[in-house]
Amino acid sequence: MPTHAKKPLTLIPLFEELIGERVVVRPYRESDAQATFEAHVESRDALRPWEPFADWHQTVDEKRDLILQWMAQWLLRENLTVGIWDRATGRFLGSSGLRPHKWEIGYFEIGYWIRTSETGKGYVTEAVKLLIDYAFEQLQANRIEIRCDPLNERSAAVARRLGFVQEGRLRNNKLNTSGQLRDTLVFSLTPADRQSQS
């Protein structure tokens, strides 16, 4: 049983930043609004097939409002949304995060996106690996899940590259951004999976 299951969620210590070889992963600050807005605008077309939020946030102020909501969720431990930053240049690269499904058993879901100009460079894989390591080592995770549209081959490739097990395919369980029925691939990683990979 995770040790944090018995304490108030707001008292669970969280990281200020996770530093990798090329990326820094950290919670958002209000001052990130401009940089994240620019990346979002750049990436709308690439995000649109997969994410309903692609056309949200048409102004920097709307993005600032979203960041303030993420900051509040972070404090309440409801959603741990983070930005991905280039370690060398400080450029905003994309977003990820851990969404707690059940703190009491250490069950989390992870999501991610990368700005269009930085796709295919391994930044997402590195950032997600940092979050996975943190979740297992510091949050006593027992399950981390990744879900994606089967047509989103890049997203599924990240899960497979990091050793996630494809557990199944939920058929006709969601509408895609065009309003058509779609399937969802479900991947998971457990402590036993990690042990078998080492």
List the helices and strands and how they pair.
Elements lengths: L17 E2 L3 E5 L5 H15 L12 H17 L3 E7 L5 E11 L4 E8 L8 H16 L4 E6 L4 H9 L3 E11 L5 E9 L1 H7 L1
Parallel strand pairs: 5-6
Antiparallel strand pairs: 1-2, 2-3, 3-4, 4-5, 6-8, 7-8
Helix pairs in contact: 1-2
Number of strands: 8
> Which CATH C-level class is it?
Alpha Beta
How many DSSP H or I helices? Answer: 5
The first-to-last residue Cα distance is: 23 Å
- Please name the fourth-level CATH homologous superfamily: Gcn5-related N-acetyltransferase (GNAT)
Number of domains: 1
Series of secondary-structure elements, N-terminal to C-terminal: EEHHEEEHEHEEH
Give the DSSP E fraction (strand runs of 2 or more residues). 25-35%
InterPro entries: Acyl_CoA_acyltransferase (IPR016181), GNAT_dom (IPR000182), Ribosomal_N-acetyltransferase (IPR051908)
Domain N-acetyltransferase: 23-192
Protein name: Ribosomal-protein-serine acetyltransferase
Keywords: Transferase
Structure write-up:
Residues 23-192 form the N-acetyltransferase domain. Keywords: Transferase. One of its GO terms (molecular function) is protein-N-terminal-alanine acetyltransferase activity. This is Ribosomal-protein-serine acetyltransferase. This protein is of the alpha+beta class. It has a single domain (15-196), classed as 3-Layer(aba) Sandwich (Aminopeptidase). 32% of the residues lie in helices and 30% in strands. The chain has helices spanning 33-47, 60-76, 123-138, 153-161, 191-197, and strands at 18-19, 23-27, 80-86, 92-102, 107-114, 143-148, 165-175, 181-189. An 8-stranded mixed sheet has the order 1-2-3-4-5-6-8-7, sandwiched between helices. The longest helix has 17 residues, at 60-76.
